[in-house]
Amino acid sequence: MERAQAIRVQRPSRWDQPLDASMSDADVAWLRTRGPFNTMNASSFPSATPLEGILRYDCRLHRAEPGEVIVREGDYGSSAYLVVSGSVRVLVDSLMPEQLGRQPPVPIGWLQAARRYLRRSRHAETRSPDQVRVQTSASGPPVIRKVDDRQAVFLQDFDAILLSHETVCLGPGELFGEVAAMYRAPRSATVIAETEAMLVEIRWQGLRILRRDRRFSETLDDHYRRHWLPIHLREVPLLRFLPEENLRRVVESTELRSFGRMAWNIDYQKQRTLPAAKQIETEPVVAHEGHLPTELLILRSGFGRVSVQHGASHRTTAYLGKGHFFGLDEILFNAFRAPAAPARPYQSSLRAVGFLDALAIPVESFAEDVLPWIRKEELPSSVQALFPQAIERRSNRRRRRSAKRDAHADRTVQPSPVWPTGEAESTNESTALLEFIVQQRLNNGRDAMVIDLHRCTRCDDCVTACSGVHDGNPRFVRQGPIHDRLQFVQACMHCTDPVCMIGCPTGAIARDPDTGTVLIHDPICIGCGLCAAACPYDTIRMAEVVDGKGRPYVDESATAPIRKATKCDQCASLPSGSACVAACPHEALVRIDLSEPEPLKQWLQKRS
Prior knowledge:
The protein is built from 22 helices and 24 strands. By secondary structure, the protein is an alpha+beta fold. The chain has three domains: 14-93 and 165-213, Jelly Rolls; 228-412, Jelly Rolls (Sandwich), CATH 2.60.120; 440-607, no CATH class. α10 runs antiparallel to α14 (363-370). The longest helix has 17 residues, at 389-405. InterPro entries: 4Fe4S_Fe-S-bd, 4Fe4S_Fe_S_CS, cNMP-bd_dom, cNMP-bd_dom_sf, RmlC-like_jellyroll, RnfB_subfamily.
């Protein structure tokens, strides 16, 4: 049989989409004369990703004017910034949300809610003028204006803000934003241009490759270890009572591990269609079932799939998120086992789902610096019986002494995460549900909408209620992937990893620090659509807005319609909470946190 002729095509390259298509050879040559690029050894980089290529395709020159907000506290970013000339100010303490144009929703009472409903406009997506444009009063929110070819946010009364807030000045050669870029974390501070400044924006892909230069890599590692790693370790409940000297040694021995692709949303649509077994095969292995544990893994960001060998494939038993441990049961069993008993290997495997970032504490450091300070009640029940009474009493005494030295510890730590049942055999039904949730990346949802199809009568009262609250345009459609009796509705899930927030030029889409709700702030939304394009679940819509009489708002210069991003806001101002849930006459709908398996499991048990 004659073989079909092959079709020759060009292999896609990660540099097919440069960060800035206008970067020229002259720009690259100029950057090579500036620190730290002028001291980098070009031979340290492979021929496929040369230093000049990183500067050309992974960097962008960014001119900032005085008072311009470069990054905002709480934003998620995928780029770091290097100051080339001029200076910027890092605000140590936080600005008020209103100063960044983020007006938090104001809760209203039942009477006000009723009046709002009765007086609602008959036109969809109605906005008042204040909701469409940024206010321009001297003490009000920021203003938006163009710098070169981009929209930029400027603080009003900038000099007074600098005088009233503690700040740190950064000058030429200094880097900021690298922690958020490298570890998919929210920005920890707001940075504002103090003078006219030239910055180099470096996206995370290039930042990782630049670490091939030893001096640059050591600088990044040293900065993270000195300033951020102790904070991140203190947030782990298991480590909260460590004395400072013990914590210092743990910091020195801890390694940073990353697996998978940070831009997981790009591959989402393709991977979600794969059968579960095939999808598991594509996921990077973090730890192998049957191997002896050499380190305790603490998940910093992203998600991991816990699975056990089942015939020729693997069966999902749990999924893990930020703050969870992997390998703790086995390490504790080995620490307390009888001298003649064999060491216990990993009872399951851990794989990165899309992207996973973890801290790895060697077992030797864990045994010497952490184990004596552990509280028994914080251990999983499967190993509590192995915890010797002598160690428990000694640990309690040390904990009390430590608490007296640092009374602030109890007020700053986060609650212990739910312990996953990663080593327990699950039924075929629960395994299928876990694999479905991971396959569809629904485990990213902190507030997913789930419908019990056995109770749902398809009356659409939920959609009608949402439409009544949101200007005649419901923020979701009763569609979405279905597993058995459950439908996971296509509504904003207020994700743990909100990739929609990456790249918003004005910070109009942001997470409320108190509730965790991801909100659109209309006055500073410029309608660019980047959030809608980035959302892997297709839950953000761009809508043209009108006034109370149905007249469309148009741009003054281009006469183009004004568009705003729209999405579920959890009915943040309503006394009833989510209108969709309150309106369901059959209690078929729930908003639930899927970042942990336990809430959904408990909800299903109540309905069985």
